[in-house]
Amino acid sequence: MRNTMTRNAAHDYSNKMGLVHSKDIVLHLDQNRSTPLYRQIYAQLRELILQGALPAGARLPTSRDLARQNEVARVTVAAAYDQLEAEGYVTSRVGAGTFVVDTLTVPLPAAGAPFVPRLTRWGQRIVAHSAEADSRILPGRPAIDFGFGRSFPHIFPYDVWRRLLARYLSTDDTMLSRYGSAAGFTPLRQAVADYLQRLRGVHCTPEQVVIVSGLQQALDILIRLLLSHGDEVLVETPGYADAFELFRTYGARLVALPVDAAGFPVERIPAGSRARFAFVTPSNQFPRGGTMPLARRLALLRWARQANALILEDDYDGELRYDGHPLAALQGLDEDGRVVYLGTFSKVLFPALRLGYIVLPPALLDPFLQARQLVDRGAPTLTQAAVADFITEGHFERHLRRLRQEYGERRQTLVEALEKYLPGRLEYSDVAAGLHVMLYLPAGYEEMAVVQGAAVAGVGIYPGAPYHLEQPARPSILLGFSGLSQDEIVEGVRRLASVF
What are the structural domains of the chain? Predict the structure, then answer.
């Protein structure tokens, strides 16, 4: 709160004797505020100085007088004066007192027009994309939210996680007192490499594994290293919209191939394509669903060899397959070092963890690490250490088995509810995998009308349009099931059926 002392009163004192009396400085102090009293005194005196109410050269009251006037301890006022002096507002003279510095030009000039940043074309594209995305968000939180990519909080073993974190917080390990490696915590890289080789068929050494702060960061670095403005990138449609925007913001030209039930249609790559990348989700196509068969995987590898191109394999939820074991990664078939494998812990542990990993061909490892070192010191070492122990002590695979059971049951519940309440009305992938289902709408339905109607019924569903690059795109909606109970899933579908 601003001090109520008038500027004229301050000038009168200053002109006559250079002294401002304590009774003329009315402070408004609140003992119940979380801000310490000395900070309240400091802030109000600072405001008076900047306003010019305490002019240059004015002598402040003694700390004893100001403390008595405001019924606070003298040491409290002294601390406020010390802070003002440390920041250059006042100066103390032995035997004379505390004075507003002579060189301070106050009051400050009148405020002008607020600063408006001049964004680059990259910045303008980012803002435009965000505004478009915000326009599709309906206000309010629905009673039943089919948001995707979420985790059900009661499934994760938080008691184990807290114990693993406490293990490092309760020690004097020097790990906590220094920055980690840009490549990541070595035991976690080893644990990830062991896991990927055993259960995902990835061919790698621990040195090829780099721990990143999510897929977006890994993509951003790869794009800056390998793509020039105007370069072509092959992508799936529908596909990962955030990846589309990253490619576009760096000036890439997207060549979108509509997927089918078998994923990315390699045979439809244009003859003479000069694409530098192919960005694919072979284990479980995002967001439509579906698995790329072996013949297409081999064909894609042949294309990459002939085109001297790189394949980015996004294995965002490859562990979450419910009718058998997870499929081997495309990277395991690569003999030329042309596949970059991208994985994440966000879907299988919890989203707020913000940890992922990338398996790089040897030729890309040094450039990637040098770029990573420049833009980021690395992911939090404490978190990485806890995840490493979570994997090596067997908690991770036990947790995955429980996830497959719990989420498999939720997906089955969703499919059965769709067949009960909307039989034959919607088309979706029959691959039992992932954390959501993309539903293609019947002819004549407009997806935003369905989304808005569901919102009125208290159900949150999400439009498929942002994930489609082909125009016009077949209307679709997305329903995530990982954050809901089975009863909520059934009730949500029942309400959705009333909208149709």
Answer: 7-100 (1.10.10.10), 124-152+398-499 (3.90.1150.10), 158-392 (3.40.640.10)
